[in-house]
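Researcher: I need the complex structure. Ligand is nicotinamide-adenine-dinucleotide. Inputs:
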Amino acid sequence: MGTLITGDICILGGGSGGLSVAAGASQMGAKTILIEGGKMGGDCLNYGCVPSKSLIAAAKKAHGYHDAADFGISAAAPEVDYGRVMDHVEDVIAGIAPHDSVERFEGLGVTVLKGYGRFVGRGEVQVGETTVRARRFVIATGSRPAIPPVPGLEETPYLTNETLFSNRIRPDHLIVIGGGPIGMELAAAHVRLGCKVTVLEAFTALSREDPELRQVVLDCLREEGADIREGAEIVRVAPKGGNQIEVVLNGPAGEETLAGSHLLVATGRTTNIEDLDLQAAGVETTRTGVVVDARLRTTNRKIFAIGDVAGPYQFTHAASYHAGIVLRNALFRLPAKVDYAAFPRVTFTDPEIASVGMDEDAARKAFGADITVLRFPYAENDRARADRKTTGLVKVITSRKGRILGAGIVGYQAGELIQLWGLAISKGLKIGAVASLIAPYPTYGEINKRAAGAFYTPKLFSKGTARLVRFLGLFG
Ligand SMILES: Cc1cc2nc3c(=O)[nH]c(=O)nc-3n(C[C@H](O)[C@H](O)[C@H](O)COP(=O)(O)OP(=O)(O)OC[C@H]3O[C@@H](n4cnc5c(N)ncnc54)[C@H](O)[C@@H]3O)c2cc1C
Ligand SMILES: NC(=O)c1ccc[n+]([C@@H]2O[C@H](COP(=O)([O-])OP(=O)(O)OC[C@H]3O[C@@H](n4cnc5c(N)ncnc54)[C@H](O)[C@@H]3O)[C@@H](O)[C@H]2O)c1
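Model: Output:
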């Protein structure tokens, strides 16, 4: 005989989005039920952001010595113990895990059910022998790696983001299929950890980024030794003797065979919705996820969807932003809606690449020639010179009158620097607000101020200004 549990809100999925809703709802006094089938913390903690950034941090340490001589310091090439690098990754995850744990959430008053839930009606979910009835449901079941139909892949051993971080044998030659953020971040880290790395991208690597900024990243990664092939057409893959794998490409000069030790598939994501029986709940889906309106309500008004399953952006900060929208709608009945005008993203290659709002291309499509493009290079910033981090630029797009439409940054700490532009866009600040900021010297933040200042350069140094200064007799 099964058990029946009732509550105010029931969340399916204890990852970035689901945990934020659960913590918020229970702290606001709602009777909250959380269902998690896998590991608490979801992709971000266990197989995504946290392990990848920890690996990137280790790779940065390994790379640190390479330009030591430029600073007058002699250093030997480091020895990388890949297994111990993965110990570090595991240790970082373990340090964060208590924050996302069943114990913490039960302590907050949440009823946590372990198991995979599925809808059995418009207001009812089944988890094992337990039935949950709640006034509101939230689908936050995330995504998993999409596996492309490459001939031979099923018979060939390959890694994904779900298995790579438990591999303790350093790849001699890592072949990465897919040049999106996952492929490029992990490729870049492995180059620095001493692996030969080849990236096979069917179209364009980091294709969502402004081509001018993306090129800077590709140039740097290639200079460090990554073999990045764009427009790559994979004919087939196959296992070879001695734990090797083989990838056959169709190239301009005919077929080419690459031999590798490890294959990483990073070709996008599939949302976890097939096993939820969403039809039983009256929730419509598309090929890529759950249909939601601007309030993140599904076609069943009592059920919300957030994070990767809702899209359109698949980031941890999108999932937690969604959580805030759902809490306002579900608990306070406020008609809060999503607004992505100031939605940022960062890819943690070195240099990092970050953006918020419109890029040049989108702004030209929307406003034609009526935009201003401002640029400022890292090379002209004194702090960047002192640190020898002179690669990169800030690029800002404004309307003719100085409304900030978007910004993109490639360079050291781009992910930190982009945040000012997010605030400026969300608060409707004009470019003058950033140009008149007093930025402490010497900081990277001055690059933002100088990019904004470029808006005034043509006016400041115009003949009109020169005439005005003469008229006022300032130098007379
Ligand atoms: C390698 C990698 C690196 C990334 N790096 C970044 C980054 O640097 N910054 C960033 O912002 N984003 C990053 N992301 C993206 C980020 O991890 C996701 O966007 C985010 O985790 C999505 O949150 P979510 O709540 O939608 O899903 P998840 O966090 O994946 O949580 C979904 C949870 O639902 C559970 N579940 C699934 N089905 C059921 C069911 N039927 N019943 C109960 N539970 C279920 C799963 O077990 C999982 O725990 C990265 C992703 C990857 C793969
Ligand atoms: N720093 C971050 O915030 C971060 C880091 C990693 C991932 N993420 C999130 O995870 C999402 C998924 O990342 P992703 O890199 O897996 O997906 P993606 O969709 O961004 O990129 C996948 C790439 O694989 C290529 N591809 C697909 N099939 C191929 C094939 N058969 N052969 C060769 N290339 C092929 C595509 O053309 C595409 O460029 C991202 O969109 C992002 O939202 C974020």
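Model: Summary of the prediction. The radius of gyration is 25 Å.
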